[in-house]
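Worked example 3 (structure in, sequence out).
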């Protein structure tokens, strides 16, 4: 076998300027981003609150995405169903929030996906994902499983030459390869890691069967192509080696091929290969010439067609360090503990960074550390490709079986796709106007007026000719809101029209894990249950809440003083609201003809009555149901306020141009019983960030003998450094004893991720 060496090798700045510019333009247009979550502890129990830090970064530079950004979280169960969805905002690429784990969650593995609107352009394969372990009364033994898969290094199995095949999806047995006739060509034991490397030379083109136990998969062998054998460097100062092989009779031997190595928007090198009379070529290149982390290697024709691809890991040379210092390695219960940290380069010069910090009881999670992925590993590797067991060899086999999803060179040089989603910093809804009776879209240009019951914001929007609409809310809201709306055409209300919202939810594949309950009690679950029981037993209930403003005050503040007001306590009441309207309430005109009741407000400025019933706001709840108002008992009503002035009612647009009636009742919590309009949408608010509690609860401070228990002692999603790259934080030990860990995750202002950990012990102090 003859070997041909690379005949031309150069940097992108010299000979690949066009390709480099295409890649830069592609990234400038596509602007891929990555998200990452850092949780306060590895495992949770039903009923817990899971605090987390969220980061949203430019995928190429790892610099934070600026301004307010709306982010989404989906918690997915074992069968792939979304069991919890949450929306929250972060600012300048960094922020914190929390998940309230429902009591109804069953023990087991869940998956958390985090993303923003822009990431939807790329597909859910690019969403952040990490496993979330929910503990139960007994420990669970979970193992990864999946269908049997086989992939040749480079992506193509080439007949007539030696190929490396990675077989995944099985932990035991033997790999058996058969040809089309069923003849066994080779057999090899499976590696217990679940990644089995097989060297195989297909004698001819065709489909080959791979069997392991009862699992079967196939892999096609092509008559021509490029077989790839890549030997990565073990250090940042070493050399990578690439061996390319083509069949003896290959048509590629007389063609020039190019080898491209890139990392996101950086084209690191380009080499031109021509086999001529030989069928093997070898290339070496220094690791220090490439970007650290996952790199994308591609063998292409000069026309741009991709023949083989490979992702590999380029080692990092450490450039930043985070030193953690505690006053001692051992502390006593209820003692104040200070942590000092400094971020610097290798010459001890201060480095600025964004940091999140957590301190948790490591002993509670020894049974299950979770499948927690630090920002260091997640960013340096990518998506769900993780380094395995600190083994460079196994990690490289994993990369052979993985794909580079950010782009193929055909994408870079081809027509750029149109973006369907934009960066979003505010809550949005979108949908269509449909016919209430038929469910069919109303394809016409219409006007929609909407009122948010929480923020009291009024909006007017127009649909397109298909009846579709979208709305961005001006101000965020954090509780469920009623969105009261009115649909008009040519200033006339369309009674048969209603709004239907688009459901932007995703479907996810079932998790590739199998969990079995063991007979061993779960330490953390039992701790969490005991903690909850103790807390409820000792909790001090003497605190009282401040009285809240009545919800209708917001709308009244917007409308101003009423044009007329009646305090029903000043009158001898009639038995029905209909009689009350006739005798007491001004401007409201009630009639009953042919068994049909109508209610209109007289508008002096127009010298006529409204064309429809007025808008009713009863104890802050909005409704257009006049029948509900008429059924009220006058003895249950405190005040009725009338708004007919066009200046005042105009603040709510077409919703109120027939007048507004504000009703205050004497009934407690009556707003929840107000008949909702058929034109009311319930909109879920954002999740508002809650600060991690730093001090004991009031009942614990009040009673010094009350137990203080907490699995996480400290959590700060955004820890600030001073000009010297230093920060201090203090927390108080609880009554828990054992080994605790300080965990730091950071990202420098230059986009370099780093982590740091330090353990300490807490022992019991007898008073």
């Amino acid at each position: 076998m003859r070997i041909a060496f690379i005949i031309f090798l150069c940097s992108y700045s010299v000979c690949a300027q066009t390709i480099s510019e295409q890649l830069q333009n592609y990234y400038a247009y596509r602007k891929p981003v990555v998200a990452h979550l850092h949780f306060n502890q590895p495992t949770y129990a039903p009923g817990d609150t899971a605090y987390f830090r969220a980061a949203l970064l430019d995928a190429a530079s790892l610099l934070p995405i600026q301004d307010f950004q709306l982010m989404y979280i989906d918690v997915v169960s074992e069968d792939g169903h979304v069991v919890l969805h949450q929306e929250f905002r972060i600012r300048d690429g960094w922020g914190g929030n929390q998940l309230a784990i429902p009591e109804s969650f069953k023990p087991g593995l869940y998956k958390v996906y985090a993303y923003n609107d822009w990431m939807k352009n790329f597909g859910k394969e690019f969403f952040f994902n990490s496993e979330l372990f929910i503990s139960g009364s007994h420990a669970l033994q979970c193992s990864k499983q999946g269908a049997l898969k086989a992939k040749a290094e480079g992506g193509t199995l080439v007949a007539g030459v030696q190929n490396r095949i990675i077989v995944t999806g099985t932990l035991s047995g033997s790999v058996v390869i058969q040809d089309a006739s069923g003849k066994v060509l080779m057999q090899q034991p499976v590696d217990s890691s679940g990644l089995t490397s097989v060297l195989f030379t297909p004698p001819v083109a065709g489909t080959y069967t791979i069997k392991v136990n009862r699992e079967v998969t196939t892999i096609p062998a092509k008559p021509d192509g490029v077989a790839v054998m890549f030997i990565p460097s073990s250090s940042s100062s070493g050399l990578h080696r690439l061996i390319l092989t083509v069949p003896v009779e290959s048509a590629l031997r007389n063609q020039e091929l190019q080898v491209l190595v890139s990392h996101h928007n950086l084209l690191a090198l380009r080499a031109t290969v021509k086999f001529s009379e030989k069928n093997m070529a070898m290339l070496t290149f220094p690791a220090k010439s490439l970007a650290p982390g996952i790199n994308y290697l591609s063998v292409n024709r000069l026309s741009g067609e991709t023949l083989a691809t490979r992702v590999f890991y380029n080692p990092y040379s450490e450039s930043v360090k985070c030193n953690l210092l505690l006053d001692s390695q051992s502390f006593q219960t209820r003692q104040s503990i200070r942590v000092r940290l400094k971020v610097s380069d290798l010459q001890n010069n201060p480095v600025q960074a964004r940091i999140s910090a957590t301190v948790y009881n490591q002993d509670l999670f020894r049974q299950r550390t979770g499948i927690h992925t630090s920002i260091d590993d997640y960013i340096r590797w990518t998506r769900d490709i993780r380094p395995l067991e600190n083994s460079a060899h196994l990690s490289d086999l994993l990369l052979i079986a993985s794909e580079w999803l950010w782009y193929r060179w055909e994408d870079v040089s081809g027509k750029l796709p149109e973006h369907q989603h934009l960066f979003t910093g505010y809550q949005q809804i979108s949908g269509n106007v449909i016919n209430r009776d038929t469910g069919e879209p109303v394809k016409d240009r219409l006007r929609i007026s909407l009122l948010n019951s929480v923020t009291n914001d009024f909006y007017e929007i127009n649909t397109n000719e298909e009846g579709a609409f979208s709305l961005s809310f001006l101000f965020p809201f954090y509780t469920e809101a009623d969105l009261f709306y009115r649909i008009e055409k040519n200033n006339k209300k369309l009674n048969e029209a209603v709004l239907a919202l688009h459901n932007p939810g995703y479907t996810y594949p079932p998790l590739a894990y199998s969990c079995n309950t063991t007979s061993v009690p779960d330490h953390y679950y039992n701790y969490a249950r005991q903690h909850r029981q103790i807390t409820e037993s000792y909790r001090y209930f003497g605190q009282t809440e401040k009285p809240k403003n009545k919800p209708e005050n917001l709308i009244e503040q917007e409308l101003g003083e009423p044009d007329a007001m009646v305090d029903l306590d000043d009158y001898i009441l009639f038995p029905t609201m209909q009689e009350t309207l006739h005798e007491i309430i001004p401007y409201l005109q009630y009639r009953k003809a042919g068994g049909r009741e109508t209610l209109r407000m007289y508008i002096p400025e127009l010298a006529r009555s409204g064309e429809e019933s007025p808008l009713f706001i009863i104890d802050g709840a909005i409704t257009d149901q006049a029948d509900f108002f008429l059924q009220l008992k006058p003895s249950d009503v405190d005040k009725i306020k009338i708004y007919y002035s066009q200046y005042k009612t105009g603040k709510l647009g077409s919703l109120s141009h027939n007048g507004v009636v504000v009703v205050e009742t004497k009934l407690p919590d009556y707003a929840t019983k107000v008949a909702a309009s058929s034109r009311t949408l319930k909109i879920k608010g954002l999740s508002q960030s809650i600060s991690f509690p730093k001090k004991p609860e009031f009942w614990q401070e009040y009673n010094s003998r009350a137990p203080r228990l907490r699995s996480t002692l400290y959590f700060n999603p955004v820890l600030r450094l001073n000009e010297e790259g230093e920060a201090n934080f203090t927390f108080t030990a609880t009554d828990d004893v054992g080994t605790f860990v300080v965990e730091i995750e950071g990202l420098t202002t230059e986009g370099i991720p780093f982590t740091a950990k330090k353990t300490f012990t807490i022992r019991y102090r007898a008073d």
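Notes: Residues 1-16, 541-549 have pLDDT under 50 and may be disordered. The radius of gyration is 33 Å.
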